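Q: what sequence does this backbone want?
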C-alpha cells in the first residue's frame, strides 16, 4: 500500500480542487490519501463525491498552533468535523486569517512591494487565505522566484519583516480538542528549520505525555540526518512515525506520494480514531 497522509487542496492553499486532488492521487498510484487543509474541512464533500475506486480518503485538517512563541502545525485525522468545541476553534483560527493577510500586505507595501489585497484574494479564491497566497503574489510580482523563497526572515517567515501574527491554538489544547472529537494527532514537519524556529524536543516529549499520537518524520523539509534523529525520538517517546508529501499542487515542488506512511502505522491511526472512518472510493466522477 502507498499512503500519503498530508495533502492540500484549493479549500486552503493548494492548487488542485479536492476532486482534482483525489483523481491525481489515484493517478499517482496511491492507495490512501489524506485531505488535510489548513483549519478547514470544506473540501470533504467534493473529495468524497469524486473519490475513484481503489483509493481511500482519510479526512483531516492541519491545525495552526503556537507554543512559547513558536509556530507549529498539528495534523488531525478522522475527527468528527461537527464536534462543537473543535469546530469553534477552527473557525476562530480561520476567521483571523483575513486580517492577518491584510496586515502582511500592509507591511509589504511599507517595504516598497506593490502587492495588493485584491491580488492576494484573487490567488486565494475560495480557499482559506494564508501565507502561501501572499507568497504566490510575491512570485507574480517577481520579488522572489518561488513560494518557498518567500518563507525567509526577509519576507514571510516567523519573525520576518512582513510577518504578521494570527490566532493560533495552543498545541496541548489542540490535542485535547482533537481527542474530544475522536481524532488522532500528528505533529507536522517538526524539524522544518527553514520555516523558522522549531519546537524543542523537550516540548515534543511534553506533547507526547499529553496524548500526541505521532510525528511526521519523512518529509521534504527533513534531511536524512534529521529523519534519523526524529525516528529515534519517536521510538523513545512511543510515538507513531508518519511520512507524507505535504502536497500543494503546483504551489510547491513536492509530488504526491513523494514520502509515504507505513501501512501498519496507518492501521494504528484508523484503530485509534473514533470520530470518523476512512472513506473507500466508489468510482466518483
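A:
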Amino acid at each position: 500500500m502507498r499512503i500519503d497522509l498530508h495533502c492540500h487542496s484549493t479549500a486552503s492553499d493548494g492548487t488542485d480542487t479536492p476532486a482534482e486532488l483525489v483523481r491525481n492521487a489515484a493517478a499517482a498510484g496511491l492507495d490512501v490519501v489524506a485531505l488535510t487543509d489548513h483549519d478547514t474541512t470544506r473540501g470533504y464533500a467534493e473529495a468524497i463525491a469524486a473519490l475513484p475506486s481503489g483509493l481511500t480518503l482519510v479526512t483531516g485538517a492541519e491545525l495552526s498552533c503556537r507554543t512559547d512563541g513558536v509556530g507549529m502545525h498539528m495534523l488531525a485525522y478522522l475527527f468528527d468535523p461537527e464536534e462543537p468545541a473543535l469546530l469553534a476553534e477552527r473557525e476562530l483560527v480561520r476567521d483571523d486569517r483575513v486580517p492577518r493577510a491584510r496586515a502582511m500586505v500592509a507591511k509589504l507595501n511599507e517595504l516598497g512591494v506593490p502587492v495588493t489585497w485584491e491580488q492576494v484574494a484573487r490567488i486565494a479564491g475560495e480557499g482559506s487565505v494564508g501565507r502561501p497566497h501572499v507568497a504566490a503574489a510575491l512570485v507574480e510580482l517577481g520579488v522572489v522566484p518561488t513560494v518557498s523563497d518567500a518563507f525567509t526572515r526577509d519576507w514571510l517567515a516567523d519573525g520576518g519583516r512582513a510577518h504578521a501574527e494570527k490566532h493560533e491554538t495552543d498545541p496541548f489544547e489542540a490535542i485535547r480538542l482533537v481527542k474530544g472529537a475522536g481524532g488522532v494527532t500528528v505533529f507536522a514537519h517538526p524539524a522544518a528549520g527553514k520555516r523558522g524556529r522549531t519546537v524543542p524536543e523537550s516540548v515534543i516529549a511534553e506533547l507526547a505525555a499529553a496524548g500526541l499520537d505521532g510525528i511526521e518524520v519523512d518529509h521534504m523539509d527533513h534531511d536524512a540526518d534529521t529523519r534519523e534523529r526524529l525516528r529515534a525520538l519517536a521510538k523513545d517517546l512511543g510515538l507513531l512515525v508518519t511520512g507524507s508529501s505535504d502536497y500543494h499542487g503546483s504551489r510547491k515542488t513536492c509530488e504526491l506520494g513523494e514520502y509515504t506512511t507505513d501501512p501498519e502505522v496507518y492501521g494504528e491511526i484508523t484503530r485509534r480514531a473514533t470520530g470518523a472512518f476512512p472513506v473507500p472510493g466508489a468510482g466518483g466522477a
